[in-house]
Design goal:
The complex is a heterodimer of chains A (about 110) and B (about 300). With about 110 residues, chain A is mainly alpha-helical. Helix content of chain A is about 70%, strand content about 0%. Chain A contains 7 helices and no strands. The termini of chain A are far apart. Chain B is mainly alpha-helical. The radius of gyration of chain B is 24 Å and the shape is globular. Classes of the chains: A mainly alpha (about 110), B mainly alpha (about 300). At the A-B interface, helix 1, helix 2, helix 3 and helix 7 of A face helix 1, helix 8, helix 9, helix 11 and helix 12 of B.
Chain lengths: ~110, ~300
Amino acid sequence: MRLIDHSPRAANAVQTVSPGGELFVLSVVVCMILASFGDAVDPMLFGEAGLEFALFDLGGEFSVLAMRHWHLLQLLLAGGVLATAIAVLRVGAPAVFKRLRPAPRRAIDKVPI
Amino acid sequence: MELEVFSAAFMSALFAIVLIDLVLAGDNALIIGLVARNLPKTQQRKVIFWGTFGAIAVRGAMAILVVYILNVPGFMLAGGLALVWIARKLLTPDPDAATNHAAQAPAVSFAAALRTIVVADAVMGVDNVLAIGGAASGSIVLILLGLAISVPIIVWGSHLVIRLVDRFPSVILLGGAVLAWTGYSMVVREPLLASWFEGHAATRLVAAILIFSISLAPWYSARLPEQMKPLVVLLPALLVWMLAFEVAASHWKLQVDYLLANESGEYLLEAVRWLGWLPLAGAFLWLREQFVQRSRRSQRA
C-alpha cells in the first residue's frame, strides 16, 4: 500500500485535481513535449539547410527558442509561466471582448456622444 | 555519468528523485504496525527500529544496484517502458488500494517480523528504485542524497506527505508527468537505440508524444466525452504505426520519404504508410461499438 492511498483525494487525483493545478501540470507536460521537439532538431542543421529550414520547420522554431536539453526545474518554471499567462488571458480576454462589443440598438440614444 | 554538484541538471534530478520517492512511497509504518502487533512491547520497539533501518538499507542497496543494471544494454529501454506503465498505474484510480497490503498477517517472532518488513518494503519499492535509478542518470551521489532527503520525510513525516497530496492532488499528476519524462529520457538514452535516434531525429518527438499519450491516458481520458474515448487507443496506435514504418525503413533499407519515392512500389508503400491505418482504425471503432452495444443489451437483460 502506498502512502498516497491514505488520501481518497490523492488516490483519485485525475478527478479531484483543482483547475489551477491541472492547468499547471498540463503546461509542464506541454513544455516537456516542446523540449523533446527542440531536442529532436540540431541547430547545426541551420547552417546546412539555411534559413528556410529554420522558418518552416516547427522543431527548428523551438530550437531557435533554445528549448534544447532543458532540465526539470526549467520545465517547471516555464510551465508555471505558461499556466499564469493562460490564467491571465482566461480572466482578461472576456473583459477586453466585452468592451469591444457594440452597444444594443435600443441603447444607442442613451450613449452620451 | 556524474553530474556537477549543485548544477541545474543536478538540482533537477534531485527534485525528480524526491518527488518520485514521495508519490511512490510505500506505507512502512502500516506494514510495521501490522507485522509487530502481536509481539511483546519490548520487541515491538526493536522491530520498529531495525525494520525501518533494514528497509532503508535494502532500498539504498537496490537503488545503487539499479544504476549498475541500467548500464547493461537493453535494460535502459526496458526500465523506460516499465516507468510508462508505473506512471499510468499511478494515475489510474484504484478503489481497493487502501486494502492492499504487502503484509497481512502478524509475525510470531522478531526475526520473522524483520524479514516480513524488509521483504515487503523491497517488493513495494521496486517501482520506486527503478524510477529514481533512471532519474539519477547514473549518479550514486544523487541517489544517496535523494534517499537522505526523502526517507526521513516518508518515515517520520508521512502525515505531512498525506496532507500535502490531499490538499494538492496535482502533485500526483506532476509525479506521473515526471515519471513519463524520466521514462522518455531513459528510452532515448538506451545505448542500443541512441545512434538510431541520432539518425532519425523526428522519431524522438514521436516517441515523446507516444510515451506521454500512454502514461497520462487515465488523466486525459477522464476529460474526454464518451464519443472521443477511442482516442485513448487510436492516438498511441497511430504513433506506433508511424514509428514501425521508420524502424522498417532503416532495417530493410526501404524508401519511406514521399519526396524521394520514384518507383511504383515506393509509392504503394507511401500509400500504405499514410492511409493504411484508416481501415484498421475503422475496424477498431466498429468492433468497439459492437462490444459497447452488446454490453448495454446484457445490462438491460
